[in-house]
């Protein structure tokens, strides 16, 4: 299969390789045949949006450029500059790299069923910029708090708990209001990690619209239970 000078961005390609006539080696009769899968990664020093059927985008150089995913499950990696990264649709994995990066989230995309993960969110440096479900700019959450640590074993139970009580520093339930966000850590192994739960302008949990973002792997100091300045995480 000819692969030289191929710089086109394409879907995964699969082909079979058969090994024969080895020199100074022995091939197991049951082996010698393998499957090779080529997964394309688009590397660019410019602002780019992934074309259809290309999975991964890597921003290179130190330019302040931006990367946007497609409808697939993408991995988007920033460079050492200040990047804007938007996974678009799909269950995406986002890495900002060095620099003060902005992760763009549109209501209806990183939901409980297709949640994104930010692998290296830098508290007080990186920021989250929210868009409406229609893709227009919207303000940062009017209220932001850290909920009590959770022992939920499913994401559905976790979200239900946070919507019931979003502030772990106040006795009694403090429901997650409209246009509000909560930070929560889960300690049980099934879904252990750190999450952001963000309610849109409609009261109550809307599974097709409200955001659930996994920020496990964050750097910096996690805020204490209770109210958090929104500017620490959002713009």
Keywords:
five-stranded parallel β-sheet, 235 residues, mainly beta, ten-stranded mixed β-sheet
The H-and-E topology, N to C, reads as: EEEEEEEEEEEEEHEEEE
Mean pLDDT: 91
Residue stretches low in confidence (pLDDT < 50, at least 5 long) are 1-5
Distance between the termini: 49 Å
Q: Per the principal axes of the C-alpha atoms, what is the gross shape?
A: globular
Largest sheet: 10 strands, mixed
Please state how the strands of the largest beta sheet are arranged side by side. Answer: 3-5-7-9-11-16-15-14-13-17
**What's the total helix number?**
1
The portion of residues forming beta strands comes to 25-35%
Tell me the Rg in angstroms. Answer: 21 Å
Estimate the helix proportion, in percent.
under 10%
Structural class designation: mainly beta
Total beta strand runs = 17
